[in-house]
């Protein structure tokens, strides 16, 4: 009887001990099997909070300053159908030395959470700051990162510009080029301001 009551006593004690997560969620891993011994500090499983899902997106370091944190981020996946919205929660302070990217953490809106699967890859479209009245100019048309050649009244004119952003093969010019200006986009040798010039058949 001693062993019987010992077992019953343990069963009663077990019924009085329940462990609750501080949030509603989903169990993604159970690290212990039935009958395993649990000690203080033992990991018994992993639960994710479905009310606070977020995704980490690596963004090129030179693009960080252009992120508009006030706008909504659009998220899609090639693995599962659907589209989700989110907000930028925080931007990391460390740069990956290998990829030169900075982690950007996006908090996903609760609507549509049921469709998401933990670990799925998502593609994020992050809005950037808008540069008004800007012009995209080929890199080859810019001299010393500050000037371009224009054709004015049949002659070459050297015009100073302000570059807002540099891209792979183009730059975004903020000031210096007005609507209707004829930009010289071909690389020219031995030219100088004031030399006679005319636009080609394609307007260049």
Characterization of this structure:
The mean pLDDT is 86. A hairpin with a 3-residue loop joins strand 9 and strand 10. The chain is mainly beta. The strands form four sheets. The protein has a five-stranded antiparallel β-sheet, with no helix packed on it. Strands 9, 10, 11 and 14 form a four-stranded antiparallel β-sheet that branches. The protein starts with a helix and ends in a 21-residue tail after the last strand. The radius of gyration is 31 Å and the shape is rod-shaped. The longest helix has 14 residues. The protein has two domains: 72 residues, Elongation Factor Tu (Ef-tu), domain 3, CATH 2.40.30; 74 residues, conserved putative lor/sdh protein from methanococcus maripaludis s2 fold.
Largest sheet descriptor: 5 strands, antiparallel
Kindly give the count of domains: 2
Number of strands: 14
Structural class: mainly beta
- What's the CATH class label of the largest domain? Mainly Beta
**What low-confidence regions span 5 or more consecutive residues with pLDDT below 50?**
none
CATH fold-level name of the largest domain: conserved putative lor/sdh protein from methanococcus maripaludis s2 fold
State the order of secondary-structure elements, H for helix, E for strand: HEEEEEEEEEEEEEE
Mean pLDDT reading: 86
